[in-house]
Every structure is written in structure tokens, then in C-alpha cells.
Amino acid sequence: xxVPVTASGxxxxxxxxxxxxxxxxxxxxxxxxxxxxxxxxxxxxRIAAASRWVELPPDPRTIQRVGIIGCHQQPRPTPALMRYxxxxxxxxxxxxxxxxxxxxxxxAHIERCYAQLEAKPGFRELxxxxxFMATWDDHDYGSNDDGRNYAxxxxxxxxxxxxxxxxxxxxxxxxxxxxxxVFGPPGSRLQVIMLDGRxxxxxxxxxxxTLGETQWAWLAEQLKAPAELRFIVSGYQVxxxxxxxxxxxxxxxxARERLxxxxxxxxxxxxxxxxxxxxxxxxxxxxxxxxxxxxxLMFAGINQDEPWVFNSSRVSPVANSTHSYAHIDIQWAxxxxxxxxxxHLLFRCFNAETDALELTYRVNLDELRMAKDAKTNDGx
Length: 380
Description:
By secondary structure, the chain is α/β, with parallel strands linked by helices.
């Protein structure tokens, strides 16, 4: 197999190859003749856009088990990590507050916090065995409840890309850590969309934004990709009530409705929200919000807990152990006969000390479909 290399002989990442191809196509139509400065400038603009928009190509591996991890206090013991190793997830979604690294002026503190996570028993083994996809929330971003005005956001962005080995997933010039990829063959395609609700987030308010215009446009493009199931991951909850003391998309009402509308307008089937922030596990459901029900699987706090808050959209018990772990199992194909079983996902939360099951919630995949007159039948 031939591996592309740089002039110095270093391997080029898969994503970089796709950017180079996009760049070649864009530059092929530009000229360097006198009077072509405007054309060249436009080409450069389009090349820069290509570097922001190109995602990793589809991964052929079928995903059947997805672990969810978030709100991890790195100084404390974390027996949940070894539970995840034993569960053998194909993928792990790190949904934010993966470390608590709050600092006003010391990027090295963020690096030290990540080093503590990496040294935890089970972390390296889990990383070696599973696909990691990560986003951040406020504490691993670096400042409690902060957004676009955080002074160290660019330094934190660079540290994040390096620690999570996401250099091929997240361009260095991207305005946030959002990224996406599709996994599996047709019929079993899972799209994972990791949002960044920090880098461009405004202070809460009626018309306040969460993502920034570039990320909104990027999200609309991602939703065009064919997939049977889509996980849209947010560091804080989408469906939690506005009146809560905690962060929630409901405190950005126009942005939340924009999120719902962009999904409806794209005719994207199979969307499930995955969220963190609260130190327990629960399921929320909002009837018809996406052209079908908006369902949110929330889990975080793998080595801490807190009293749960009122949630008018909650449709499950609350899993609230101090040490806990959670995963989603996906049955892609329906079975027939005496044991007929529709294709579905199964969300479960466990006590990491006793391995006792604390929450189970099932969603049949045909519940995540728009009306029969939907525009396409290819998973969009």
C-alpha cells in the first residue's frame, strides 16, 4: 500500500489527502495571468473553505456498541473505565467535561489535567480498542459556563486536538472542535456529529446563538450524508427545561428551534441527541419536534453524582450512582418469525461498582422516521 508523504517524508493523514484533492480541483480553474488577482484570491478563499469543510471519509466498520463518557473528575478514582474496557465498545463518545481543567491564564494546567486522565487505569487500553470521538463542555474548554469570550479558547483548542489525536478530524483553523463521520455499510450506517457549543456560544438569551454561522452551515452539509442512524452530540442538554439552574439549549430558544428546523428541512432520518453535563443518566422525549420525536439520551458523571432536576421531557427513570457507565447497543437488522424483533437501539446505564443495571430505554429505529411522503429513501 502506498502512503502519501510530505517533502520531508512524513506520512500525510487521510483527511489531508482529501483536502489536497479538493485544493487541486479548486486551483485547476484559477489562472496566474496578469489581471487574474481577483480570481486567484477567490480560489484561495475556496481552498480555505475546503480545509474547513472536508471531513474524514466514511469508515466501513459496523458500529454495534457505543460507550458514553463525560463529567470525569480526574483526581478521583474511576472504576468505570475498566467497566468500559470489559464492555468492549466499538466506539466511545466523550461528551464533555472529560476533565475539569478550569483556568483563567494557564494552558499548561489544561495539559496536566489531560495527563491525569491518560494515566488512569483503563484509558489507554480503551483508546487502543475503540474509536474515540470527543467534544468538550465548559470545564474541559477551560472555564465554567463560558463561551466565545474565553481568553484561552485557541490554546485549549490546540491542546484538545492533540490529546484526543483528532488532528485529522479537526482542522487547526476550524472555529471549534466540531467534527463528524459516517461508519458502516449501507443499511447499517451510523453518522456521528460532534457539536461544539462553546467556542462561538453567546450569553444565554432569546436570540443568542450556540454554534456560530460557520458551524450551522457545516451542520446543514453533514445532514445531507446518507445514514440510517445519526447521533448528534452536545456537551449540554438540548431538551432540558429552560427554568432549570443548569445550562440547556432551551435557554437559547431561537437557536434550539433553528437546530430542530435544520434537521426537519434536511429530511434527516434517524436523529438521536446524545448529551452530557448532568451527573446522572436519563432519557428525554419531545413529541414531533423533528418531524418525528426528538429523543435525547443523557449520561455523564462517571465518578460523581448530583441530585437530578425537574425535566418535563423526561420519559425514563434516573440512573444516579456515584460511579457509573453507560452504552448504547444497536441492532441494525429486524428479525422475523416467532422471535421477531425490529431494528432498534438500547440505552443502558449501570452502577460501575456493582455492575447493577439502573436504566434501560429502547428506541425502535422506525420511530426515527418522518412521514411516508418523505423526499428520499436513502437515510436522509
